[in-house]
Amino acid sequence: MTNQSVTTGGSRRPQARPSEILAAALELFAEKGFSATRMDDVAARAGLSKAGVYLYFKDKTALLKALVNELAGANIAVARGIVEAHQGPVSPLVATILAFLATQVRHTRFPELIKIVIAESRAHPDVGQLYLDTVINQGLPLFEGLIRRGIASGEFRAVDPALAARLMIGPMLLAIIWKTVFEPIGAEALDIEAYAAQHADIFLRGIRS
Amino acid sequence: MTNQSVTTGGSRRPQARPSEILAAALELFAEKGFSATRMDDVAARAGLSKAGVYLYFKDKTALLKALVNELAGANIAVARGIVEAHQGPVSPLVATILAFLATQVRHTRFPELIKIVIAESRAHPDVGQLYLDTVINQGLPLFEGLIRRGIASGEFRAVDPALAARLMIGPMLLAIIWKTVFEPIGAEALDIEAYAAQHADIFLRGIRS
DNA sequence: GTTGTTACTGACTGGTTAGTCATAATGGCA
DNA sequence: TGCCATTATGACTAACCAGTCAGTAACAAC
């Protein structure tokens, strides 16, 4: 909240501004959606004026792009770390990855961000493109490689790795939509960890040799 | 296209209007999204003036609601028919349902409609609510019952039916998002029928006893 | 204190569009 | 032919909000 940056007190905090603005934007986008969030709101929550926001971000869209880069990119990096550090049979790794995704879905703003990208990608194709490059085209090959490893080691039967990778994350997308779209309008909550665990169980039984 | 209704020729066709307007709205919503579609556009494509549209529909939202009722309701009715007509082991029925959903995803506007509901449900909660009532709360129990039947007959092991029903349709949601969000911005096309077939294969192996 | 620079703001503009309303055309019917 | 209910429209308004800009405040350096 208070100034931790290089410059001294008062209201001049150029170093801290961008992350403060992004934090405000993320909260508001998650609460109200992208279109319904006014730049005045973002500015107010970040503690400056609307014109001030434009000193740090070119566009409303630039806020969304920065958030996609920050959040999604971080998640993918973690997933990649988990995958690359792992030795031995891949089945438990699949379960671990799905459990990791479940906690991300439950405890972070990641689901809301994905929902917003989905909702806005027609109006802002560059945001969709960024998500495609940053998340999809990073994540899918990662999971695809995982399936390939399992097939190569004889753990899995010879399924199509590209399709299997999508089948692995498809249910997590449903969880994301469920949480961000249907729970807010009165659908009963989904136990995401249990759901991911059952998914891992069924999926692994389904592809093992 | 031409007048099939009770009144004679000219431009007065009150019987045919609503479906003409809905057809125009569906096309435009699918092409440009809900928010980006102007009521003037809908009116123009339906062949009347904007004010004319308001003689038949209260709201822009009313168009969307009518479309959800029409398309989604019809699909659910067909799925229910397939399920209830089926006798014998449920495994092939699961495969049939998934193949049916795949053709719907490939050949109808259903995916676009779902995407729009997802995108707009925060701004128009009543649309989300309608979808929840018309599709989710009709479809999920249907699939859940299917899983129960399989468990009761000894075909499937004792998985949680509520979770399994969601796991059954989760991958189809991914296919929908893939087609409506990522393919338009350059992602390679997904072979939905093959994807659904592999899903049926893996899923059924995963839950059989 | 004066000057230069950086950070910041209030007030404004321009474009957009859902929804309305007074008015007009249409066609069945007496 | 003229009447009336129904069907239709052009023109308008009221609200909304992203993005701009001329000007102001704060600070650093000397």
Automatic annotation (TrEMBL), chains A, B:
Residues 15-75 form the HTH tetR-type domain. Coiled coil: none annotated. One of its GO terms (molecular function) is DNA-binding transcription factor activity. It holds the Pfam family TetR_N. Residues 38-57 bind DNA. Keywords: DNA-binding, Transcription, Transcription regulation. It comes from the Bacteria. This is TetR family transcriptional regulator.
